[in-house]
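hiii so my PI (J.) wants the whole complex modelled not just the main chain, which honestly fair. so below is everything: two entries, each one labled with what it is. i double checked the lines twice but i was tired so who knows lol
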Amino acid sequence: MNIEQPYIDLYNQHKKAIEKNSSLVFNGAREKAFIHFKKLGFPTDKMEPYLYTNLRKAFEPDYGLNINALEIPINPYEVFHCSVPGLSAHLYFVVNDQFYSNLTQKSDLPKGVLIGSLKDYAKTHPELVEEYYAKIARTNQDGTVAFNTAFAEDGFFMYVPKGVIIEKPIQLINVMRADVDLLANSRNLIIIEEGAQAKVLLCEHTMDKVTFLCNRVTEVFVAKNAIYEHYKLENTHNKMTHIGSLFIEQQANSSVLVNEITLHNGLTRNNTHIALNGEYAETTICGMAIGDKTQHIDNYSLIEHNNANCKSTELFKYVLDDTARGVFSGKIFVAKDAQKTEAFQTNKNICMTKEARMHTKPQLEIYADDVKCSHGATVGQLDENALFYLRSRGIAEPEARMLLMFAFVDDVIGKITVPALQDNIRMLVEKRFRGELSKCIGCINCS
Amino acid sequence: MLEIKNLHANINGKEILKGINLLVKPGEVHAIMGPNGSGKSTLASVLTGNPAFEVTEGEVSFYGKNLLELLPEERACEGVFLSFQYPVEIPGVSMVNFMRTAVNQQRKYRGLEPMSASDFLKLMREKKEYVELDNKLANRSVNEGFSGGEKKRNEIFQMAMLEPRLSILDETDSGLDIDALRIVANGVNALKSAENSTLVITHYQRLLDYIVPDFVHVLYNGQIVKSAGKELALELEEKGYDWIKKEVGE
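here's the output for the full assembly
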């Protein structure tokens, strides 16, 4: 079946509406992306980066797309009182693919910081947005990125000017809300100027039990000496497919931390591309996934060392139960001139049952001759000796298993630099392992 | 009290214990000695319920309960404690969390309320003194990066925390220098009472200079072939195990 055709028809029929509900900057990239999409189609599991994840099935259902940008009747500020206890954050919402403007919200952001609807900022600050929009998220490589760029109308925008430090984390809650099956192409653009600092926490939630597909593209530009932290927490339901393509470009002496945590989701595909373009740039990318039932989590990452003296550290951990599937493919590319590169990659996995499957593919592609690189992957079960040791002290087996699973992912949680967030993730992970509904405290509707 | 009758056990289909009989009364210290491969550590593993071993015959009763029917954690809650020959490193589980979970699980088993955080920390501080355990170790992951001596001291610290009725010390002296040996032995002696008993498994007489046994048993080829008072340990130290082997007819 040609699953692309209905989407191609949809685009051809509604191109005017899409353009009308978006902005010139988006529209400028649209047509080329559409041509790329027609050529590439959705990825198949015959393609190397998608060998173990069949995304095509996820596009098969007859989804609604909110092309006309009809307002969703919801005030997320009323629904989500506070999702991270003790966390003082600047709170924003994207509902499906639309930025939710809250006119009553008082902003205490530092001067010059712009945060809001990407579509609106593309209209009010077209030069700024155009300089960055769709510049690193290449549409000629991955059909999902081309698809997003062809259909995207809005999303989240953040601009932190030179030297400005935002102390409090920016919390962006992405809510999927619909009465029918829904597909959303949302778009984020984040610009961190020279010497600036910011932390962004993205929370993924679903509000309805329908089938959702969220295909999101996020572009992040981190200039010289800037520091940026990017946390993503997925806590949704089994009928949610999330495709998250994250592109980060780093300049000299910049530092980036990416932490992608999948607590609960149906099908997850994270594409993380980090380009270290300036000397002495550093990046840490880590993540963890907890999967059970038929859940499927795929983290694909590409770290490009394009300049000398950069350092990257990568750590991903999976705990898979029942018949869950996990996929990790991480590629570290070291260009010819990227001497003195340090790149370390680790992927460790636990399969709790014989039916759980983990596919892991660590890759190094090195063209420089003076580098320090390593990669390693393990797939195994809980350590039986450790389990017996704990039980021999009186700890019942289920509790002992819990302790060991929790310990296994603890170093990924430990990478979180915001204490309140770290505590909250620990609590959620523990609840998840205990099989309790991992509702965030204070959130009345984020199961 | 512990009563072992005709205990047989296998690992991977191979019989290691071939009919052990032993009676340990409250307050007694028994030493089990014997050459390598005689089954000493297997006995410790079988008594604590290590699932790698299969009991094929025999009975073990502990204060009237059939120990062999209980899960490892239930045996621990009944008061059986094993000081491991090779304590396991568990990265990511802090000592505090580990001990709090263990103490509270044992309390739950006995129908007691969980211990409050402040009472628990007080107990930890108190019990650390027994083996001069560094404060810093308590905040680290279980046994991770501990030296050989610290690991063994940590075992005795856990024993102090859990106050078992039967402590099995499996080669607690191996890998210890003289000072650490003294600290560990002092800890064990300080925890001794008229109600609890100790089973000391060791190769050497050395440890028994510090922890003085009431009885010494020689385990050889899966059976206890000789039992006597503490003087037997000295005799073994002097003559080795060959004469025992001759005595049993090999």
